[in-house]
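Example S7 (structure tokens).
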């Protein structure tokens, strides 16, 4: 999906990856390349302009994280801004429990409305609901017959009685579906080759009479800016609740997906990625942005590094107050464990980087450290200096270790306090004994 777009984006990223520093002069060319790629992909010009302005502004004003390259950080900023354009958060297709709901499907002819009705019914059925489809297109030849054939093939009921009075017959079909126990009722409305007043007026009247719970606009992902223009017109008249972009498995440029939500202010709820019944996905802006960029590893790395930076700042505040305790140490261990293997994480954190790659740290040693700290009283954790001989015996017995282990931990904890106090001033080279702290208990 969108392979060509992704490839061009990554070619533009190559110049970013090579940046050793970030300034207005050296960031202009890579961002100009990204802008050109987005415009070639048929992304709305105003959307592109706003996106690139935000990326440049935030890149120049960002504090560089020491364990990643400046270029990687700019890519992460680009990714975050891309998510905002795509809607920032997933907008669920809400199916109310124990209460029938009506979904109105609208769009131009050829956008994939009829196929979507069947796919959406299949999706609802997998969620435990009882879907049905209403034929509400009196103009396209054999439209109702097509729905009946597709419904029969997928075992989805279709109510297809259409009379000269479209509003009345549609309302009757919906009522019949509800009486039959179907709780997701999907209406396949008429499309046109282009937007016209007659078409819009009919849809507006249908909306007013039926009062659907959801109105989904179906747009063809291959039509680029035309799809965006269509969405704007439908939004003015119908105020739809969500967007579905189809045919993203073909030669789609991707511009429609990147522009649609930003231009209309409405969320993308589903994307169509193939012809099969199950080829429909809930739209997740973060995942879609990752697919486009093909940069999931870098994004994860930056996010972890940002988290580690926040933890380092908290740690430094405590050290300045000279009150770093065993409880703080224990809390740090728990935070690191949540992020993944200690060895892997320490290679990412700001005061580590490449210089930590040779440091061998066994996660199992933390089990012993935790046991020792857990055997201490709250007072002992806050003030290790009060731990005398009797307290050491109790701690050793409670942790299943010996007094030598307790003495070693106390000694190394004091060493660690001294080392951490100097991290920000002297870097890592002076602290080769860190391996003893983590590996020698």
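Recovered sequence:
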């Amino acid at each position: 999906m969108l392979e060509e777009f992704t490839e061009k984006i990554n070619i533009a990223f190559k110049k970013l990856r090579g940046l050793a520093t970030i300034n207005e002069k050296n960031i202009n060319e890579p961002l100009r390349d990204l802008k050109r790629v987005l415009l070639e992909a048929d992304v709305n010009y105003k959307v592109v302009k706003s996106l690139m302005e935000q990326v440049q502004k935030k890149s120049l004003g960002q504090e560089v994280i020491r364990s990643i390259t400046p270029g990687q950080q700019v890519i992460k900023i680009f990714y975050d801004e891309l998510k905002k354009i795509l809607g920032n958060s997933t907008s669920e297709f809400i199916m109310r429990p124990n209460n029938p709901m009506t979904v109105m499907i609208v769009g131009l002819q050829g956008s994939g409305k009829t196929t979507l009705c069947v796919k959406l019914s299949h999706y609802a059925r997998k969620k435990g609901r009882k879907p049905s489809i209403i034929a509400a297109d009196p103009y396209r030849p054999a439209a109702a017959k097509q729905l009946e054939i597709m419904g029969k093939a997928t075992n989805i009921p279709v109510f297809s009685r259409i009379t000269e009075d479209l509003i009345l017959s549609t309302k009757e079909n919906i009522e019949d579906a509800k009486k039959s126990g179907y709780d997701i009722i999907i209406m396949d409305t008429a499309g046109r080759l282009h937007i016209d007043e007659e078409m819009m007026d009919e849809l507006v009247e249908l909306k007013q009479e039926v009062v659907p719970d959801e109105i989904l606009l179906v747009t063809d992902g291959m039509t680029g800016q035309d799809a965006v223009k269509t969405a704007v017109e439908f939004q003015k008249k119908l105020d739809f609740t969500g967007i579905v972009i189809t045919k993203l498995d073909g030669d789609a440029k991707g511009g429609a997906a990147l522009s649609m939500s930003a231009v209309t202010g409405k969320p993308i709820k589903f994307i169509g990625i193939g012809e099969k019944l199950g080829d429909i996905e809930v739209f997740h802006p973060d995942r879609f942005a990752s697919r486009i960029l093909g940069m999931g590893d870098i994004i994860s790395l930056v996010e972890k590094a940002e988290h580690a930076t926040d933890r380092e700042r908290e740690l430094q505040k405590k050290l300045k107050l000279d009150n770093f305790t065993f409880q703080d140490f224990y809390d740090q261990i728990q935070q690191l464990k949540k992020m993944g293997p200690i060895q892997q994480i320490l290679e990412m954190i700001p005061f580590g980087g490449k210089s930590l790659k040779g440091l061998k740290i066994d996660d199992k040693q933390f089990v012993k450290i935790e046991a020792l700290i857990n055997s201490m009283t709250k007072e002992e954790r806050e003030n290790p200096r009060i731990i005398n001989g009797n307290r050491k015996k109790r701690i050793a017995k409670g942790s299943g270790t010996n007094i030598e282990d307790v003495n070693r931990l106390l000694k190394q904890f004091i060493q660690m306090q001294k080392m951490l106090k100097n991290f920000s001033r002297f870097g890592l080279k002076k602290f080769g004994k860190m391996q003893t702290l983590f590996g020698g208990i």
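Notes on this example. The chain has three domains: 3-86, 101-283, 296-439.
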